[in-house]
Amino acid sequence: MMKLEEIAFHNLEFLNKKEDFLANRYKIDKNRFIKEDDDTVYTLDDLEYPIFFTFHQLINHVHSSYNQQFYGKTKKELLDMFETALDTLNEYYVETDNSNKRFEHVIDDIEDKVLFIIQYYKYGWCQRFPTIVKDNFTSFCRTLLVVSKDIHNFHYDNFIKPHVLSDDEDDSDDNCEGDETDGEDETDGEDETGEKLDNKKED
Q1: Which of 8, 9, 87, 141 is the most exposed place for a label (fewest CB within 10 A)?
Q2: What is the torsional sign of CA 49, 53, 59, 63?
Q3: d(CA 83, CA 159)
Q4: How far, in whole angstroms, is CA 54 from its chain's centroid?
């Protein structure tokens, strides 16, 4: 069974053979272009999925693989094949004289992505350096925010929170002592009044 990347690579090779594709000398088997001598005419909707699969499968490989060659092709050669295949598809679309906005959006999206990776690898560090700086600076700022929050929490837990709790305890103690004092004063008053009343009776 063929791997997905192998299927995508053979599709790309076929799209680079402009004559066979433009003459419809192929058949579509799910996501594969298979060369055949019989002329088979497919709609643009039929072409959409294998084209989308082919380019995105290989674009992902170009970005994620560290291997210098892919089925005997360097990354630069793959990018050249991308451009040739896109030229073939655009020429085919013009020759069909059909208007299909969804197909146009698919091709435009692929062209944008291919153009980006071509610039990315063509200009090398000039293209990658700003991205690296941006990512690292964003990570640095995120780290500062996390550290600042940790410092704030540490300062609050160790220096502010204990004093707040002790102040609350002192206030509660003062309130309790005040209540006890008020109770004693009221009792004394009753006793004094009672004694005075008793003295008056004796007189």
Answers
A1: 141
A2: positive
A3: 65
A4: 24
In sequence order, the β-bridge partners of residue 34 are: 27
How does pLDDT run across 120-130, given as a tens digit for each residue? 777 766 666 77
| Tokens 């005997």, located at residue | 72
Tens-digit pLDDT profile for residues 167-202: 666 666 656 555 555 555 544 544 544 554 455 445
**What's the pLDDT tens digit per position in 113-172?**
999 888 877 776 666 677 678 778 888 998 999 999 999 898 888 888 887 777 666 666
Strand, coil or helix: 73: strand
- Mapping DSSP to helix (H, G, I), strand (E, B) and coil, where does residue 70 land? strand
Q: Which residues pair with 33 in a beta bridge?
A: 28
Q: What share of the chain is helix, strand, coil (3-state, %, to 5)?
A: 80, 5, 15
**0.70 cut: is pTM over it?**
no
Q: What is the dihedral of CA 47, 49, 11, 8, to 10 degrees?
A: 170
CA atoms 39, 45, 46, 51: torsion sign:
positive
**Could you give the CA distance from residue 9 to residue 5 in angstroms, rounded to a whole number?**
6
Rounded Cα distance between 22 and 173, Å, is 94
3-state class (DSSP) for residue 12: helix
Q: How many CB atoms lie within 10 A of CB 70?
A: 16
